[in-house]
Write a structure and sequence with these properties.
Distance between the termini: 50 Å
Pfam family, one: HTH_1
Number of domains: 3
CATH architecture of the largest domain: 3-Layer(aba) Sandwich
Structural class: alpha+beta
Number of helices: 9
Number of strands: 15
Keywords: DNA-binding, Transcription, Transcription regulation
Largest sheet: 5 strands, mixed
CATH class of the largest domain: Alpha Beta
Strand order of the largest sheet: 4-3-5-15-6
Family: Belongs to the LysR transcriptional regulatory family.
Shape: rod-shaped
Radius of gyration: 31 Å
InterPro entries: LysR-type_TF_proteobact-type (IPR058163), LysR_HTH_N (IPR000847), LysR_subst-bd (IPR005119), WH-like_DNA-bd_sf (IPR036388), WH_DNA-bd_sf (IPR036390)
Mean pLDDT: 87
GO molecular function, one term: DNA-binding transcription factor activity
């Protein structure tokens, strides 16, 4: 018999004032109730109830134990009610980490609609291009792009993130539009530096063969929008996700080249802290992300 069963049985005995009535309320045999009480007293090394054929009363230890156990059981009931309410309704806090550019351009509409659809959910978002500590900082989920380092984190793939090669029209006029990736080998690149495995640019040709180049770096930065504006100014070319280049893809700002080549092959992931089951609101939010971006 578990400690919890013993404690709950003792509380029922104390409240009903009788082992017989306690057995009736619990729906078990009187002998089972007596055995639970005896096991509890033996484990505690103290007599909790004075019982004779004519007398039934709590000892001093029994009264003290009853007060503590009732408080503990009430707290347990509250905790269970809170969890059931959370499971049944989308309510409570949602703490999300997301990359800056992607979060502002692609996730902001998802966040907005999710909160409109779920008015009892509260949202906290950390927009950062660093890999935050999900456990230490208390995140429910992080949205990440790129190769995931080996760790105990649990990942769920959402979609593929296409990259594109872009530069300003003046830059292409000065250097010539490339016909192959190798034509970029000696041109200055504006490089995003937070991504892993990006010192060398890897690509796949239309025929399925793969290659790589390592152009000289003109600017390194940890923000894609900053690099895009540098590219608009004609300071170099960049190979960045479409969502970074998209706002600038106009004839007078940025022009894409080598459309038929695939670059990098990074994925968009939802990453969860280890050892913690995602809440229903977290799962519902990711379903919305997949529906919008998958």
């Amino acid at each position: 018999m578990s400690r919890l069963d013993e404690a709950e049985t003792f509380v029922v005995i104390a409240r009903t004032g009788s082992i017989s009535r306690a057995a009736e309320q619990l729906g078990v045999a009187k002998s089972a109730v007596s055995r639970r009480l005896s096991d509890l007293e033996a484990r505690l090394g103290a007599q909790l109830i004075l019982r004779t054929t004519r007398q039934f009363s709590l000892t001093e230890e029994g009264r003290s134990f009853l007060a503590n156990v009732e408080t503990a059981l009430e707290a347990l009931d509250d905790a269970e009610r809170n969890v059931r309410a959370e499971v049944q309704e989308l309510s409570g806090p949602l703490h999300v980490a997301a990359p800056v550019s992607f979060g502002l351009s692609k996730l902001q509409p998802v966040f907005t609609q999710f909160l409109i659809d779920n008015p009892e959910v509260t949202l906290r978002v950390d927009f950062s291009d660093r890999n935050v500590d999900l456990v230490q900082d208390g995140f429910d989920v992080a949205i990440r792009i790129g190769d995931l380092p080996d760790s105990s984190l649990i990942a769920r793939k959402i979609s593929f993130v296409r990259h594109c090669v872009v530069a300003s029209p003046t830059f292409w006029d000065a250097h010539g539009k490339p016909n192959t990736p190798e034509d970029l080998r000696h041109l200055p690149i504006l490089r995003y530096e937070n991504m892993r495995s990006r010192q060398t640019l890897t690509f796949e040709r239309p025929d399925g063969t793969k290659g790589s180049i390592n152009p000289p770096q003109r600017v390194r930065a940890s923000n894609g929008d900053f690099l895009a504006q540098m590219a608009v100014a004609g300071l170099g070319f960049m190979v960045e996700p479409e969502f970074v280049a998209e706002p600038y893809l106009r004839p007078e700002e940025l022009v894409e080249v080598l459309h038929d080549h695939d670059w990098f092959g990074f994925n968009l992931y939802a990453v969860f802290p280890p050892g913690r089951r995602p809440t229903r609101r977290t799962k519902a939010f990711l379903d919305c992300v997949e529906q919008a971006l998958g």
